[in-house]
Design brief:
single chain; Rossmann fold; 6-stranded mixed β-sheet; 4-stranded antiparallel β-sheet; 10 strands; globular; L-isoleucine transmembrane transporter activity; ATP-binding
Amino acid sequence: MTALLEATGLIRRWGGLTAVDRVDVSVAQGSLHGLIGPNGAGKTTLVNMITGVDRIDDGRVRFQGDDVTGLASHRLASKGMARTFQTSQLFEDESVIDNVMAGRHGHIRYRFPHTLFYTPRVVREERGHRTEVYAVLRELDLAEDAHRQVAELSYGRRRLVELARAIASQPTLLVLDEPAAGLPGSDVDVLGDVLRRLRDSGYTILVIEHNIGLLMTICDRMTVLSEGKVIADGVPAVVRESPEVIEAYLGRNDDA
């Protein structure tokens, strides 16, 4: 499969600490790729580097064949890279549909004076954007919540709203930072079904997660970090049996 995202030799240093140490990651187009590792493994730092949130001290990032190393997050977003975060970035007092509409900002074509006078062009474009947003809400089973305030939703539903807003930007790559964090088991199952459906409908997804069981059941490929280095990369069945992965999560058995 063709690589949509390729990161090679990425390094990030914090003073005397190397948080990410010569990491290579390749995400195939149309795949669901998991990034896992124990606490402090460097997962979020790595994704922050790839998505333009944090600087890259060394190494290269290629996206859709272009070198995008060091580009700011807003420029990567304009190229089709959408990102969610561990902590909520939603507008709690706004409706679900208004939150998801915010994901369409990169597709708005009208400018002043249309915005000042709310011209017919604005009306037409907003109607089109809302049609697109409703399609996303239906895809994630959120249509019935469209006009509810985000603050009224359960935590699991809010996480889906964040995902919907990212999808509304019509990304080429979805980067999800611990979407299952804090979810009860039933909501984790729903999330897994949603991510599989998105992959099957053509999205490419890179997801960071602590929930190994979730990723083992939904991912096409996984990359495992420990202490800033890649210790395993491959299909879930192979990663699961890796001695390095078992040791990273369970600790060394000195009696063995």
